[in-house]
Amino acid sequence: MYGLTGEELAAFGDRVDILVVGSRGYGPIRRMVLGSTAAYLERHARCSLLVLSRIAISPGEDSTASGELQAKTAAGTAI
Fold this sequence. Notes:
Elements: H1 5-12, E1 18-23, H2 28-34, H3 37-44, E2 48-53, H4 63-75
Parallel strand pairs: 1-2
Helix pairs in contact: 1-3
């Protein structure tokens, strides 16, 4: 597909039941300059939308612990 990411994903929503996208969360200045695909899809998606936020890893923490946290969160388990 060619075009603007948000528009193409919103149109793709006609063919699927749910869109799952990630949010990088770089902050308001960068979002203002570059835009936010997740924010665009919140307004224009033609199906259900799940936005996963980025999980910060503390220094010294291994990535497997973060992966377990993401899996529990995605499965709907309360933490």
